[in-house]
Input
Amino acid sequence: MVAEERPAFPRAEQLLEASRLGSGIGTVYEALDRLVALYALDDAVLVVDVPGLGRQVLRAGRKPLGNDDRGLLRSPPGLYLDPPLHDPALDDLMLAIGALGLRLDTRAGARA
Output
């Protein structure tokens, strides 16, 4: 029986490097940028609520929200992609990465 070959996806070297050596928020931004590149998206925004930090809105490419035509500042926590992808596991993973990244940086700042 021959094992089925999986397609090779390029590794996200910058994302892996950020997770090892960079800041938590830097890792979140790298993950958003990776999603945009991997799925040929026009935009990716992560909205998270972190206890002690409140609502945080992170956009791929560290772009500003501008006039927030999409209402993201008032949106519930989640991953907002343009065009949309419907992948609940991806949404949950990005929310977890976002919360962990922000908490990591907050704790690191408190120790400094």
In short: The mean pLDDT is 83. Strands lie at 43-50, 54-59, 78-82. The chain has one domain: 13-107.
